[in-house]
Structure formats: structure tokens, C-alpha cells
Amino acid sequence: MLNRNVETFLGCDKEYAEADIVIFGAPFDSTTSYRPGTRFASKAIRSESFGLETYSPYKDQDLCDRNVFDGGDLELPFGNTQRVLQQIEDYTTQILDDAKLPLMIGGEHLVTLGAVRAVQKKYADLHIIHFDAHADLRDDYLEEKYSHATVLRRCYDIVGKDRIFQFGIRSGEKSEFVFAKNHTYMNKFNFNTLKETVEKLQGKPVYFTLDLDVLDPSVFPGTGTPEAGGVSFMELIEAISCVCKLKIVGCDINELSPIYDQSGASTAVACKVLREMLLSINEF
Fold it and tell me: CA gyration radius for the chain?
């Protein structure tokens, strides 16, 4: 039995036993390739969430009517990447064993790997939907296999060919795009083929990983590696609603670096995106 965190995301204050969804933070950014700071995201999101309402006019639903438990942040050893991934995997496994859905708040994107390891053990036919500015398909980054620049390649090693669907990608090495042509489904720049993908994946278990830098930096500047040419807020909200019509068995939101947007707007955007995810997933 897990105990509820003292400071919770707005409206996510149900007891663990009654929860359908469990959110938790993974404040880790030790492999960040450009600007660190995502380790502060989960706490900032919780704190700033109280600037929102629990009610969503986009979905005409209220978080107070959902059973969501906030387990707080994991205590992660920044100098040991493998231990971090193992702790995330273990915590995610506990949530899944208790028949609940894990939603992780990063942290850098590498944290996704720990959760995917756990989810794939329960759902062998796992597929991944990935929103991001970056392909994250490098086999290594500076000779390091485990990095936020390699995370989807390591996930590929787990789920295999044609199980990863990528959207919004607009940055990466040429080799990553070559790899994607033969091993993943990649929709560059936007969500144009998302509806077709959702139709294709009906009934299959899906892990949904959302890197917030899929948004244009004019909407979301508070991230470590901003990339011009991203999607709008409304495009993202509509895409989330579309993806969450699927059988979502795990998910995460990552790569907010609140220190790079002193206005607080990026954190506010992240809070609203998280609220919409919680209200959309599997329509609990």
C-alpha cells in the first residue's frame, strides 16, 4: 500500500486503494545533452497546478470526479543511471501489479525506459506512441547507450520493429531518420497520420510518452532543447484526446525545465496538458 503525497497535483488526492491512475515524479536529468533542469519539473508542476481549475472546458469533465493518487517523487540517485531506471521499473511494476495505470512525470526523457521495461513485462504485445521534437533514436550519444537522446532506440530494443509510432519529430541525426524508415513509423512535424494510427492500434496495449518539446517554443520555451517549428497547444490537446481513445496501459510526460521560463508560462502549459491527459486516459 502506497501513501498519498502531502503536496499533490490539483485534484489528485484520492487514496491509493481507490485509485485507477497513479501519478509519480521521476526527477532525473543526469544524461541531458544540452541544458539540465528537468529534475525540477514534477515539483514545479504540483505547486503551480493550483493556478488551474480541476474542471476542463475542453472535455467538460472534472478531476475531482476521477480517482487519481499522487505518489510524489521517487528519490533517485543522480550518479547511477542504471539504478534510476531500476527504481522506476520497480515502482511502475508495483502500480501495475495493483491493477492501476502509471503516469510518470519526468525528468528527462530517459526515464521512459524504466517504465516501458515494466509495462512490457505485463503486456508482451506493447506498442508505443511517441510525441516529441526529437527522434531519440541514436544508438549512442557520446558513446553512451543510455541517454535522453537514445531512449526510443532502447525502447525499440524491447518492443521490436514496427511497434513505435512517432509524431512531431523535427530534429535528429540523418542516421536516426534512416533507422526510422525501416524500423518505426515516423510522422515528421505534425500529427497528420495520427487518426490512422489510432485506428490501426485499436485493442492493442499502448504506452504513450509525451515530450513537451513537441510544442513550439513560442508556446513552451521552458525546455532543455527547444526546437522551432512545433505544434500548437490546441493541436496537442486534440492529439492527446485522440491517442487516449486507445488502450493506454502506461504513460508519461517529460522534459519541462521550469528554470528556462521565468514567466512560469511553460509550467502552466505543462499543468494543463497533464490535466487533459488525466481526464482523457481510458475515460475512467
Answer: 17
Which pTM was predicted?
Answer: 0.96
Are the C-beta atoms of residues 240 and 200 closer than 8 Å to each other? no
What CATH number does the domain located at 16-283 have? 3.40.800.10
Inter-axis angle of helices 111-122 and 151-159, nearest 10: 10
Alpha-carbon distance of 201 to 20, in angstroms, equals: 22
| 30-74 pLDDT per residue, tens | 988 888 999 999 999 999 999 999 999 999 999 999 999 999 999
Bridge partners (DSSP) listed for residue 131: 167, 210
Cα 122 from Cα 120, distance rounded (Å): 5
Q: Which residue has the higher pLDDT, 2 or 68?
A: 68
**Cell numbers found for residue 3:** 501513501
Residue 268, classed as helix, strand or coil, is helix
Sequence letter at residue 110: L
- Interhelix angle 81-97/111-122, rounded to 10 degrees, is 40
Nearest to 132 by CA among 106, 170, 162, 173: 170
Tell me, rounded to whole angstroms, the distance of Cα 87 from its chain centroid.
17
Tell whether the model's pLDDT for residue 153 goes beyond 80. yes
- Amino acid identity at 21: I
Compute CA distances 256 → 96, 171, 183, 234, whole Å: 25, 18, 28, 18
Cβ(51)–Cβ(44) under 8 Å? no
